Amino acid sequence: MILTVQNLRKAFGINEVLKGVNLQIENGEHVGMVGVNGSGKTTLLHCLLNFEWADGGSVKLAPQTSVGFVQQDFEGMKGSVWEYITSVTPKVLQYKDDLDDYTYDVRIKKVLVGLGYTQEWWDKDVTTLSGGQKTRLLLACALVRNPDFLVLDEPTNHLDIRMMEWLENYLQEFKGAILIVSHDRTFLDNVVTRVLEVEAGYVKSYKGNYSSYTQQKALEVQSRTAAYNAQQEYIAKTEAYIRRFKAGIKSKQARGRQSQLNRLERIEAPVEYEEFNLRLPPTEECANRVLVLDDLTIGYGENVLVKSIKNEILRGEKLALIGANGTGKSTLLKTILGDVDLLNGSVKIGNRVKVGYFSQSYERLNNSQTILENFLEEYGLTVEHTRSLLGGMLFHGDDVFKKIGELSGGQKARLVLLKLVLDGANFLILDEPTNHLDILAKETVEAALAVYDGTVLVVTHDRYLVQELAERIWEIDGGELHDYRGDYNFYLKHKVQVSGVSSQVSGDRGQGSGIRDQVSVVRRESDKDKENKGGKSVDLKQVEKLEEKIREYEAMMKYTVSKMQEPNLGQCEMESLSQEYAVYEAKVNELMIKWEELQS
């Protein structure tokens, strides 16, 4: 074992965050850590790396273990990119002593280039880098050290898709142990072989990658809920018996049952997390051509980012705009919105098209205002109505009087999402809408967008979101906008055909949906198509349409359940929602039968 943790505890005042954590990590094991925001993941990392910070328990590393940790702390960063990475810690210098200068430099260059720092970056002053660029440099420093145990806290936060794929490949080949805290489901699927879940102050281990964890967790919750409900029913009946007969002829039996209850090991209620309520309203009719770009060139002055864009978006389409950092994705969005002057060509918004914009820098929020002030000023609703809406986004009680500048990124994201609901837009332009959200919140956003009947253009590096939502892909590459009229699998298949990427994938990575696994799947599907020529073959488009419909109805089921759990719900409303749920469930079952027939 490279790491052994026993009964680790940590509290902040009366808030006991870690109640007794036990875990082990073997040398060479790749482990992911998940949990909702505020569950204690970062606290646990701090305790592992600095045990004195904990309140009790023990943390033991194997002797002579070197640890690499990427901290979100930029203090003390100075010099050029090259100077910083070659002199940041004595460990790097020690590592250099074990290698010749050439091999050492090659290793640094490999890591820097992989994380987007090509040679023209090496002489840049680190103090001029953005927060995201500094984070990538710290990640590069950790990788260069080649430690025995690598600890990464949200390593994909500032990486584009290509860099994520590079990092995935790097970590898959990494021989040491890895502990990764992440909300990136695709990344976890492709890198980890075990998942630790932090919940209610404890840590539980699940074998396999993230997809395997979700299946195990769903079965566990189902089983635990059934057991808890059965025990509660038994307790209620026993208590009723005791109350009825404690003073009568059966008082002895009543006392016996009371003794049984006292000895009964109580099953804890399953942890229920409050989800925010996000349902985008039905959209108003608008022109079929929602957006028309005619010979559009974008950039800043003489710095041309993308040239000669000639394309359009039709009503109801859902597109993902992808590409490397700095290629012009956000600039294209701002040019469409009129916030950045176009360099050539034209942008036309269709008749009766109302745009709703989600910016990753949250410009619509005034940091000096309280949450309540900001919404009252912008929408002019009553205080009661505004507080009710904010409560649906998990801002309860005195939360509404917090200054916006004091909120976390995830809290600000929820406020901007609420504004999109109130705006009633029929064309959503979203710039990294799931950044800073935990997995539960991401699923809520995905479900809302899946059933939204308007048009969506989303910039994102979240491959899971792209896979779930996009029916069409725009990619900016080489100063041009490339249009792929299909979903993410279609895009990947095209990239494979163009680049001739090998279908050989080393090792079984479980049920991950990363690019290497998907390339392999695409190849296998292509081979099967060849084998089935002249015979009966599966209609892949029909399968994909069925899967999309199933996801839509499941999203509506999830929303209906959330409505049924609202307090003060009338009997008529409950019956109506129950009937609505039954309709959606029947639809899912019907579609699943068709899907299984096609698969078999």
Which ranges are low-confidence, i.e. pLDDT below 50, for 5 or more consecutive residues?
A: 501-537
**Beta-strand fraction estimate:** 15-25%
Cα-to-Cα separation, first versus last residue: 44 Å
Q: How many distinct helices?
A: 19
Q: Total number of β-strand segments?
A: 18
Mean pLDDT: 84
Overall structural class, as computed from helix and strand content, comes to alpha/beta
- How large, in whole angstroms, is the Cα Rg? 27 Å
Give the helix level as a range of percent.
Answer: 40-55%
Strand ordering within the main sheet: 5-6-7-3-8-9
Described by the principal axes of the CA atoms, the overall outline is globular
Biggest β-sheet description: 6 strands, mixed
Briefly summarize what is shown.
By secondary structure, the chain is of the alpha/beta class. Helix content is 44%, strand content 20%.
Q: Can you tell me about this structure?
A:
The protein is an alpha/beta fold and 600 residues long. The chain is built from 19 helices and 18 strands. The chain has helices at 41-49, 81-87, 90-97, 101-114, 131-144, 161-173, 185-191, 210-245, 251-263, 329-337, 371-379, 383-392, 409-423, 439-451, 463-469, 488-499, 515-531, 540-564, 571-599; strands spanning 3-12, 15-25, 30-34, 56-61, 67-70, 149-153, 177-181, 194-199, 202-207, 289-300, 303-314, 318-323, 344-349, 355-358, 427-431, 455-459, 472-477, 480-484. The chain has a six-stranded mixed beta sheet, with helices on both faces. A six-stranded mixed beta sheet has the order 14-15-16-12-17-18. It has a three-stranded antiparallel beta sheet with strand order 2-1-4, with helices on one face. Strand 1 and strand 2 (15-25) form a beta hairpin.
